[in-house]
Amino acid sequence: MSSSELSPKVFACSQSEKLAKKIAKHLNTKLGNVKLQNFSDGEFQPAFEESVRGRRVFIVGSTMPPADNLMELLLLLDAAKRASARHITAVIPYFGWARQDRKDKPRVAIGAKLVANLIQSAGATRIMTMDLHADQIQGFFEKPVDHLYASTIFLPEIKKMELDNLVIASPDMGGSKRAYAYSKYLNSEVVICYKQRKKANVISKMELIGYVKGKNVILVDDMVDTAGTLVKAADLMMKRGALSVRAIATHAILSGDAHNRISESKLEELIVTDTIPLKFKNNKIKVVSCAPLFAEVMQMVHSNASISGQFLM
User: Fold this and answer.
1) 252 forms bridges with which residues in the sheet?
2) In the chain, which ranges are continuous DSSP H helix?
3) Which among 25, 81, 113, 195 is annotated as catalytic?
4) DSSP label at 240?
5) Quick check: is 279 catalytic?
6) Helix, strand, or coil here: 28?
7) What pLDDT does residue 304 have?
8) Which pairs from 44-52 meet CB under 8 Å and 24+ separation?
9) 110-133 pLDDT, tens digit each
């Protein structure tokens, strides 16, 4: 049997093991064996416990902080390269460090570009990810990038709600393109929040561009970190006469006091994917899995089929 006919092998970094198991199940295979050896000084060494020679390998690992998550992915990529894997795809559901995609002030690094270089140098021959914070990050790689969109998952969820007088909202100017894409598919109106920051994660002022009175609003974003923007936007929209405010966000970072902010906010519901595992349960947060989408695209990549049909927008 030629190497191209062999079934792909799926491995997981420890931070994404739960998601990787779901992906493997959808692929009708078992998750490959990886052993992680920890040393007393905090150093660690992952190792494949089975042969990957001549095989297509998918390594699933989101790269949210701490930096150990990124390091574990890099070590597994390097291990696969040195074990003579034929194709090595880094499946990165959440691409961390993506907010550092440019020099926004003097004497700072472009972290996203650095991480892209590290992933390629470690041995990735292909990258698969979802809802990058900035689309242009795809250009930081010299290898093929499959950039998936959570709209494939979220749009059916929105349709299930059967909301009248629906309005799609972006919590900031940067997300307006995403909001317009959703609104075009749902045939709804769009409103945009304009915000000014004193510093990272701290909003000094927010204004609303558009009308929400008598509307059911759905805020659309790629990630929710401290939840400050979402909560402030929801409060503002309810003050302006919205009937209800919900939110969808691909990556549930939910750092600091985010869970309490969401629980105490005017948001009726926040829908997220499982690109990042939730640390706490929250009655207002609903998780929909991205595993079926990743599994389907991974199978298409393995069989050299077109994946363009997977994009609803």
Assistant:
1) 224
2) 17-26, 67-82, 111-122, 151-161, 176-186, 228-239, 258-263, 291-302
3) 195
4) T
5) no
6) coil
7) 92
8) 44/68, 44/72, 44/75, 45/75, 46/13, 46/72, 46/75, 46/76, 46/79, 47/79, 48/11, 48/76, 48/79, 48/80, 48/83, 50/9, 51/83, 52/9, 52/80, 52/83, 52/84, 52/85
9) 999 999 999 999 999 999 999 999
